[in-house]
């Protein structure tokens, strides 16, 4: 039985390679140098897809780790263009920094390369701005925060944010007010404060904040927005360790990394805090991924995190979206890629690879500037997808995009912990 299945599967690959589908479709990911967890997640997900239910093609995944300064846009563009020369049909990366993101988009838009960003694209903060080739796996949180402010009945709040994401935080605050203006006529005031760069200063920052506000005797509603999970954990630890009365403090963790560990720690305290969870932790795929990352990190004799970071679920889902989009593209025309693969190489409009600068192709001096011939079709397939966690294996629930490639119709669990009474709501 097993032998016959393998023979059948090999025949499918042979048949599709000759009569329509390529046996392998190349995709390219870019990650930060040294980010082992992201690389382990990418490899795990690709291997799971390639070894799972028989499909019409396999993913040929290649990763390039980038090590450079944030402001080195030219160096980043050069490395992306170098990888494109060997050819790939879809690109994955995780970038929310404005300048680095612009470097990617300059290539993506010029050559019409489909891009899946597992972080939240800066374009998400610019409504009605055309974004034809990028989709973001991480959902926006402005509407969630606006709805929470209204449910809590707060008429003021303070927005704590990291200095590295000052621009993004300001844009997010603007988006919060756009949602509020459509829901209420009440005036809601806000203030933005930068967190210290050194996490060791979080405790002193909170102490000084309390000293300045103590005489006002006001209820402080504080949104916490950090650039990564590590800084968030350090800030939450500083809040739990603070030596002043926080009875009139209400905290909201703006990101989706309010972990079960955090819930357990704050349930034992006397602090009002609200957070969001988006990972479907009961999903078997979650347990398998968590185990794989722990093994990869232990190989380097490093201590694994207490729980799986939410961003790794977004990385996982980015690969699933890539595979599903390519499948959807071929379902509409199963011979679409028939002329794109020759002797294991990707050809674009009869020329090997994709070049940012045609003059760099020394083998084909007559090469004109060419955009990727299937870029628009694949990008359209991405934004037309609707994947659910139960049937598609996504870890962040239903994945669906609006026309600008921003997540919509996603499910979030709100965890509301209060110090004096039972939580007003713990809902989805």
UniProtKB/TrEMBL annotation:
It comes from the Eukaryota. InterPro entries: ANF_lig-bd_rcpt (IPR001828), Peripla_BP_I (IPR028082). It is found in: Membrane. Keywords: Membrane, Signal, Transmembrane, Transmembrane helix. Pfam families: ANF_receptor. GO terms for cellular component: membrane. The keyword Repeat does not apply. Its main location: membrane. Residues 90-419 form the Receptor ligand binding region domain. Residues 1-20 form the signal peptide. This is Receptor ligand binding region domain-containing protein. It comes from Meloidogyne incognita (Southern root-knot nematode worm).
